[in-house]
Each structure stands twice: as C-alpha cells, then as structure tokens.
Amino acid sequence: MEKNQPDIQLKPYDRHEDEIEFVSYLKVLWKWKYLILVGTLACALVAGIVSFNMTKIYETNMIIAPGILKIDEYGKRLYVDSLKNIKTMLDSGSFTDQLLASMVKTVEGDVPRDLGFEVVQPKGLSALQISYNTADRKQGLQILSDLGNLLQKKFRTVVLYYQQEYKMQKDEELSELEQLASNISNEKASIKNRELEIKDGIKRLVEVESEIDRIGENTEFLISERNKFLSNKMTDDNVLSALLYSNTIQESIAYLNMIRKAASHIKDGMNYAKLSIENRKNNIKDLESQTRLIQEKIANIELKINAVQNIQILQAPKSSLSPVKPKKKQNVLLAGMIGLFLTVFLAFFIEYISRHKDVEGNA
C-alpha cells in the first residue's frame, strides 16, 4: 500500500511584510529619537570631558644607526652590532637602571618608575626609530639624549680598538714612507756628487788634452830637429846632439803615453759617473713609485679610520608639538558611536518590554 504523502504548502513570499517590519523599526527609532539623541550626545560629552581632563602625553623620537667598524676588500660591512641585537637590548630594558639613576641626578620633577621604549625599523632604512611617550616633553628629550650617550659609550671600546689598529698600520706605512724619502734624498745627493765629478773630469780632461797637444807638438819638433842632425855630415858633436834629442824624444813619448792613460782614466771615470747617474735615476723612479703606492695605502687607511664610527644619531631627539594622547576627536567619535548603539539597543529593548506588558494585559 502506498502511504499518502501530506501536501506541503509553501507560503508565498510577501515583500510587503518586510516593508512593514522595516517601517515598524523606523517608527520605534522615531519614537525614541530623543532618548537616542540624548544618550549619544551624553556619551560623547562624557568622553570629551574625560579626554580634556586626561594628562597630555607627548611623543619623543630619535633615529639611530649602528656605526661601521670595517669594510673589507669585497665591500662587506662590519657593524658595531646588528639592528636586531640593539633592538633586543632596548626592548629588554638593558639601559633602564642607568637612565633612571641619571635622571635622579639631572632631571627636575617626578622620575618615572619604569621606561618603555617603542623601537621600530623604518621602512627602507638600516636604522632604528626609538619612541618614548611622556607628559614632560623636556624630560623625554633628556631621556632619549642620555640613551644615545649610553649606546655610544657601550660600543666605544670596540670602536677605539679598530681605530687604534688602523692607526698602527698608518704609522708603519709612514715609517716606510720616511725611509723611502731618505733613500731618495741620498740618491739625489749621490747624483749631485757624480755630476760634480763629471764637471771636474771635463775640466781636467781639457787640461790633459791640451797638455797632450803641447807634448805632441814638442815631440814632433824634437824628432824633426834630430832628423836634421842625422841628415848632416856625421861628427862627434852631431852624434852627441842626436843622442840627446833621442833621449828627450823618448822621455816626451813616455810622458805623452802617461798623460794619454790619464786622459783615458778620466774618461772612464766620467763614463762610470754617467752610468751611476742613470742607475740612480732609475732607482729614484722605483722609489717614487713605491712612495706613491704607500701614499695610496695611507690614504686608504685614513678612509678606513674615518669610516670607523660609533652609534650614529641620524635624528636627534625631537618631541611632537601636539600631544599624541589622549586622542580627543577619536575618543569622542568612538564614545558617540558606542552611545548610539547602546541607546538604539535600549530603545528596542524598552519597546519590547512595553509591548510584552501590553500583550499580557490584554490577555
């Protein structure tokens, strides 16, 4: 047997019912409009009064960056510390005790019991922005200023170590540069002495060559005279005279050979002096080339010394001109919205209670 299936009839959707309900909501809101308006304004007014009576808080900011200790040959930088480690130290309150102790001595007015810094890394910067909120703007500036000094003091030892290391390298290069300058000076002095030797040699050579010419002419004259005696009729006197001429000629030739050797020796000395000058000039060029290289090294070391930096204060402590707390407009607006929701809810709740009582009374 087939069971009879009950007929399910769906009630057709009536858009007019939704419109009626919406209109009834509007009527409730209109009925309690003064309650809603007064409640909203009251909440906003209370929030405004409270906000105006709250202590004004100002924000003080400072931006720091870790200094560079070293830049290697590949351009990699070694910092005094990483941004992460510095942020961790600040967040953990590593400097709080020192700052509070310093404030007791230097800051006028009440000293806070604790210090809370907000540390963030600005987008696109290898730096940290440190913020501190306080009611006393002067106190906030002093706290961040002292914090910057404490950070620099913490890393001062390692900065001095790297600076001293570079200065030792510079002193070594300066010492070598001084030695090279002394060597160049010695070489120039030697060249000057050799030039004086050449100048003196030229003078002596002129004198010797003049003497050679004179002895040569005198020897030729003696030979000519001796030949005249030999061409005449030989007598005892002529033979004796010819013998004397021959002895004199031999002495002249021997002396001529001696001064020619002296001239040759002078020329050899001059050539040696010229060669020595060329060698010393080449030495000076090499020494000057070494000097330039060392000067470049010293300039590079000086750049490294100047590159060694402690914690950098990119932006000095700066306080906001207007208070960041309380946010009066935001508080009033938020209180007004909360008051609006509460009074609307209260209106519907009262309306519901009222209708429920009416229904029970009619029953």
Explain the overall architecture:
The two termini are 48 Å apart. It is rod-shaped, with a radius of gyration of 55 Å. A hairpin with a 5-residue loop joins strand 2 (68-71) and strand 3 (77-79). It has a 4-stranded antiparallel β-sheet, with helices on one face. It has a two-stranded antiparallel ribbon with strand order 2-3. The chain is α+β, with helices and mostly antiparallel strands. Mean pLDDT is 83; it is low at 1-5 and 7-11. It is 72% helix and 9% strand. Helix 4 (96-106) crosses helix 5 (137-231) and helix 5 packs antiparallel against helix 6. Among the domains are: 32-54 and 326-342; 167-307, Orthogonal Bundle (Helix Hairpins), CATH 1.10.287.620.
Topology overview:
Layout: H1 15-31, H2 33-53, E1 58-65, E2 68-71, E3 77-79, H3 83-91, H4 96-106, E4 118-120, E5 128-134, H5 137-231, H6 236-307, E6 312-319, H7 328-362
Antiparallel strand pairs: 1-5, 1-6, 2-3, 4-5
